[in-house]
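Ticket #4471: structure output looks truncated?

Reporter: J.K.
Steps to reproduce: submitted the chain below (238 residues) through the standard prediction queue, then opened the result file.
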Amino acid sequence: MLIKLENIVKEYTDGGAPTTALRNVGLTINEGEFVAVMGASGSGKSTLMHIIGFLDKKTSGQYFFDNENAGDFDDLKLAEIRNKKIGFIFQAYNLLARTSVLDNVLLPTIYTTHLNKNEAGQRARQLLSKLGLSHRIDHQPNQLSGGEQQRAAIARALINQPRLILADEPTGNLDSKSGQEVMEILQDLNEEGHTIIMVTHEKYVAECARRIITLKDGQIISDQKVQERRLAKNGLIK
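Returned output as attached by the reporter:
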């Protein structure tokens, strides 16, 4: 078991009555799963991902990460987990402008001790080669296509060999061909053993995962295994 949530509640207050984003959510995700989280805008799916990724704090409930109670983690421990155990992939790529692809990928290694500079550089080049970006290694983000920027972001997410990959609408800014390439990469990573949680509002993208969780009004209303998981040659399955 990598993730276990028990009765997670998240409330936001903005000077008035509190707004409840998550209502007593319970969820278990095991090592090696590929889970898609779906739901309409405002359903709580991004809030759920932010809590899982320690980007936001729950209001109440219990969160166990890698068999440890996350409520016992101090800020230093949380920062270490975010850096070493979780890789983030965002819809907007979040690459630094005027910084080479290689240096963008190396950013998470600045605060790690398990890789020295040479090892980190070698691993970054290997990842970029694997993702078909060897010829773009010295380019800046504005010189890359959207699909190439997202592949660079995936390499950055993988550089510290995380236990968990969190992908927030990873195909949201991409055309269908680039979106298909990104989903193929995520499927391959899952086949290699990576645990992936992906937020998406597109059903045909979610069906590339192995399990689909659907949220409505801050509650899980469906949790199903995907019977068929494949990508058709002419595009994502529908």
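Triage note (M.O.): checked the attachment and the full token line is present. Residues 96-161 form one domain.
Status: closed, working as intended.
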